[in-house]
């Protein structure tokens, strides 16, 4: 029940029976360093691949960069106060590696570490559990110059950086995520090149994926050594992949894309092996000679939890005979000619189809791999918002959250040990290659004035947190 002393400003749940989440359910919101911090060249921070990429003409819509972003670096106190007003139980943020270890190797930058210490202390002072992601896509540029994720050594550098962070913050941060969405780092960063560093080579993308997971495994071991009490996990972005029809050819297309999108990561991380069919699909791209003895054991080092980011579903069809695959660099190496099909269902401003049942399906699938506690570490939607008389009535975003929370609850009913949910995102921010043109926030950001305005979805989410649940429909 909501607290009668402070009624939510918007309570669309009034008078309706509740759908309650388990006690202690961790209600949160998420952000990432490069998307919100700004202060790109302040207090010793050096460039990451996203600084270089966003400053390269033609890479990001309208030439937007994260130089200022939401200026969160200078507004930490106010931003945590907003989180406290929402009643967040947890806040998932990422650390800018380039801020705390500007060269990607060697000495730490005390001013950079100090920023995260202040953030964590402020969260704890407000009763908000800090949830730290070590890598949300922003590799220090010197490490990219040395080969980036396709180079094996980057995994070892990531482990060193992890030790540095565990030493600095492990006394006050309980929840740690190694990587955010390694699929994006590998296949958008080195395959299609639409994300930093913008390289386009299928074999490099596959190598990057492997070394990201190797870095993850080494980082888990580093965290365990430094902070035995830490709760450690990884965040993967998963999609149900459906065939457009029940023909064998479409089913095979779905199998291929499922291999690259989901099983490329789930199988090594949670089972310690690459799926054989995936290795066969990739045989024209790479012979996996980058995989060394012992790597898969490291990659599958036991975890305490798994984070799932969920946005949409893929529906795919077999290539049409005689029609050449799009010659643009692909994020689906070896399966470039598979067609992605739209179903005509409602989409978000990203063009992503809204498919809440896919979240239930995805959580159940991961639960088929592991009994570990699961967390939805991101889920949310971009819509075009309008700020009218100081209000943003984002009914579509609110409905998206509502539908997906119901889907999450269904997974719990089906026995999935789902322990928390993080809305993406706390506030509007730099949406990577889309710059500031896509708004995912529950809090509106005016990028000229840096004024924050909680949208209807934020006020609604606050009421969900207060009652630990939703109304039944
Ligand atoms: C995810 C990213 C996150 C944000 C959302 C919309 O893939 O992890 O940073 O861009 O998509």
TrEMBL record:
NCBIfam families cross-referenced by the UniProt entry: BGL
Keyword Membrane attached: no
PANTHER family associated with the record: GLYCOSYL HYDROLASE, LP05116P
First-tier enzyme category under EC: hydrolase
Entry's EC annotation: 3.2.1.21
Residues in the signal sequence: none
Protein name listed in UniProt: Beta-glucosidase
InterPro entries found in the cross-reference section: GH (IPR017853), GH_1_N_CS (IPR033132), Glyco_hydro_1 (IPR001360), Glyco_hydro_1_beta-glucosidase (IPR017736)
Molecular function terms, GO-annotated: beta-galactosidase activity
Keyword entries, A-Z: Carbohydrate metabolism, Cellulose degradation, Glycosidase, Hydrolase, Polysaccharide degradation
Family statement drawn from the similarity comment of this UniProt entry: Belongs to the glycosyl hydrolase 1 family.
Organism per entry: Micromonospora trifolii
A UniProt-annotated Pfam family: Glyco_hydro_1
Catalytic function, reaction form: Hydrolysis of terminal, non-reducing beta-D-glucosyl residues with release of beta-D-glucose
Keyword Hydrolase tagged: yes
